[in-house]
Amino acid sequence: MEKLIFLDNAATTFPKPESVCTFMDQFYRRAGVNPGRSRYDPCMEAGELLDNTRRLLARFFNGSDFNRLCFTYNATDALNLIIFGMLTEGDHAITTTLKHNSVLRPLYHLSQYEGVEADYVPFDGAGFIDPESA
């Protein structure tokens, strides 16, 4: 393979570290099933891996209940889940136009169709925000 310089890492994390490829290959061959759907061995192993991962991440993020940790497809999916799940008619969101589309588009939709007020704090030519302007 030619030398590749990959600039879309936030979206896809490519190339994956060899340890990730090895683990995933072994996992899919051994227990690549739907956790929590039944009680056969590979399903139980997948469920245990999922629970252990939740525990580790909850501890890492100082969470109090690992069962409240939610996995999503990606950051856009997570932000959509949070923004659409938290803001309702009469709420007020404050952000900037510097935010990613995964924030701006849900806020635009909510402000246009769901009665959520959205304000955008201005920034200067260097991309800095003056806290006094908020």
Secondary-structure class:
mainly alpha
Question: Helical stretch count?
Answer: 5
Beta-strand residue fraction:
5-15%
The overall strand count is: 2
Low-confidence blocks of residues: none
What is the CA-atom radius of gyration, in angstroms? 20 Å
Quick one: biggest sheet? 2 strands, parallel
The general outline is extended
Total of domains: 2
Order of helices and strands: HHHHEHE
Please sum up the structure shown.
The model has no long low-confidence stretch (mean pLDDT 89).
Give structural attributes:
134 residues, 2 domains, mainly alpha, extended, 5 helices, two-stranded parallel sheet
Outline the fold blueprint.
Blueprint: H1 9-12, H2 18-31, H3 41-60, H4 75-86, E1 92-95, H5 101-113, E2 117-120
Helix pairs in contact: 4-5
Architecture overview:
By secondary structure, this protein is mainly alpha-helical. The chain has two domains: 9-68, no CATH class; 75-133, no CATH class. It contains five helices and two strands, in the order H-H-H-H-E-H-E. The chain has helices at 9-12, 18-31, 41-60, 75-86, 101-113; strands at residues 92-95, 117-120. A two-stranded parallel sheet has the order 1-2. Helix 5 (101-113) links the parallel strand 1 (92-95) and strand 2. The model has no long low-confidence stretch (mean pLDDT 89).
